[in-house]
Write a structure and sequence with these properties.
By secondary structure, this protein is an alpha+beta fold. It is 31% helix and 25% strand. Bound molecules: flavin-adenine dinucleotide. The site of flavin-adenine dinucleotide has 33 residues, from strand 4, helix 3 and strand 11.
Length: 433
């Protein structure tokens, strides 16, 4: 009997023949071999693209979670990949370790975060996959295989950004750092100043990012730096209340842009500046209740301001329904073959659209601006690229595809969406069984 599945935003839906939650790697291996194909694995379903969609089998790793072992001296932790980032933070804090950086939320499974090159912000900080020391997978034939950076660095680079297509990751060892404390500050400034000072301001902090508030002319800048000071209370979350105000003004004044702009500016001026010190695990993540769909492109760092200016102009001229702030971050380059940050200091720009409305006209109009600057799409966020275009953006593409064929020779993990992404024919044993 088939069941229904949908992603976080509700935009991607599937009716797989089977949804299963294996209890251990043995059961997982049997399912990968014998369950109706294509077999796709889900973390927390927080991707916006149809990566997880399957009309065959969706495998949830929610029962494969928790700490396996740790090395206190090297600050390494081996964890099961179904572990959500929220519980993971507390596990790590309990053993004196910290994740060097995090994205906006802590709901993802670590396997899912690795699956799409999930990232936070910081010019010297890599995405989660750059922490990988060892990876254990169940391959497309249902066999357990182990890879470690020491001795097998190429394989770690090939499969670290996994997309659920280079086997199913069961356990990973992460290189963490000793627990730490951050001073977090937020303030508002004119977007013209932000764009002019972009390189200096983004480079001046361990972690820096900003949001542009559409139709306002203002940005909210967020900086986090290491601190030894005593903790102070984290102010209550104001993001959802701010969004409600922006949505109300959009709904009432979408066709009166100058009045809307004036009212937003006066609301923005009242945003309280923030300044607090907290342990790392109390700083990064926010609560995201209002559902949206999102596109994020990773651009060469220096292209960030021009691309953002283009996106702002497009939005404010043609898409009055948009009210979500645009998010701008930096990510350090890395060596992972399917990483959007491969050998490139990066500026990431994310745009959001209320999940109650069709996001596609806005996303389709914005994408050429990102592509003009050689943007690489976030694997888990909306984009329209297929193999022919992706191959041009990833110098090690062919090598990655050769490794994928070795790991999954029968294309068991290849859904029609994945086949389009990788330029391969879904085989009978993958999609039709
Ligand atoms: C509210 C919200 C906030 C977000 N904030 C950020 C952010 O700050 N930064 C950022 O970069 N992204 C962000 N994202 C995107 C999100 O982090 C990614 O889409 C991430 O992949 C979702 O994790 P998940 O566990 O839900 O994975 P899923 O969406 O369930 O899966 C993602 C991919 O990973 C694969 N996968 C999952 N588990 C495994 C495994 N064990 N082995 C092999 N492959 C596996 C899946 O098959 C799929 O291909 C956000 C998304 C939402 C909805």
């Amino acid at each position: 009997m088939s069941s229904n599945w949908s992603n976080w935003s509700g935009f991607v839906r599937a009716e797989p023949k089977l949804i299963a939650s294996p209890a251990d790697a043995g059961e997982l291996g049997d399912l990968v071999r014998t369950a109706p194909g294509p077999v796709r694995v889900v973390g927390a379903g927080h991707s916006f693209t149809p990566l997880v969609k399957s009309e065959g089998t969706i495998l949830s790793l929610e029962r494969l979670e928790g700490l396996v072992s740790h090395d206190a001296e090297k600050h390494q932790a081996r964890v099961r990949t179904g572990t959500r980032l929220g519980p993971l933070m507390h596990i790590l804090q309990g053993i004196g370790q910290g994740l060097p950086n995090m994205g906006d939320i802590d709901r993802q499974a670590i396997g899912g975060a690795l699956g799409t090159a999930t990232h936070g912000s910081g010019p010297t900080l890599g995405a989660y996959h750059t922490q990988l020391e060892t990876v254990q997978i169940v391959d497309g034939l249902g066999k357990l295989r182990d890879f470690r950076r020491a001795g097998d660095q190429e394989m770690i680079h090939a499969i670290g950004v996994a997309l659920g297509a280079f086997g199913v990751m069961t356990e990973v060892t992460l290189n963490n750092i000793p627990t730490y404390r951050l001073r977090r500050r937020k303030w508002v400034l004119p977007i013209a100043d932000m764009l002019r000072e972009f390189e200096t301001m983004m480079a001046a902090h361990r972690s820096a990012e900003f949001y542009y508030i559409p139709f306002s002319g203002y940005a909210q800048f967020i900086a986090s730096d290491l601190s030894d000071a005593a903790p102070t209370p984290r102010p209550p979350e104001a993001d959802e209340a701010g969004l409600r105000t922006l949505r109300r003004l959009r709904t009432a004044l979408a066709w009166l842009p100058s009045l809307r702009g004036r009212l937003i500016r006066s609301a923005v001026a009242k945003f309280p500046a923030e300044d607090y010190v907290q342990d790392w695990l109390n700083v990064y993540a926010s609560d995201r209740q209002t559902k949206f769909n999102e596109m994020e492109y990773h651009l060469p760092f220096e292209a960030g301001p021009k691309a953002l200016a283009g996106i702002i102009e497009l939005t404010e001229k043609h898409f009055p329904e948009v009210y979500f702030p645009m998010e701008v971050r930096t990510v350090a380059p890395d060596e992972f073959w399917l990483s959007p940050f491969y050998r490139r200091p990066t500026c990431s720009i994310a745009i959001h659209h209320d999940a109650a409305n069709d996001p596609l006209p806005f996303m389709r109009a914005a994408e050429p601006i990102f592509r003009k600057y050689s943007g690489r799409p976030h694997w888990g966020k909306m984009h329209s690229l297929k193999a022919a275009e992706l191959k041009k953006l990833y110098p090690r593409w062919d090598d990655a595809m050769a490794v994928r064929r070795d790991i999954d020779p029968q294309n068991r993990l290849v859904s029609p969406y994945m086949a389009g992404l990788f330029g391969i024919e879904p085989s009978p044993s993958g999609s039709e069984r």
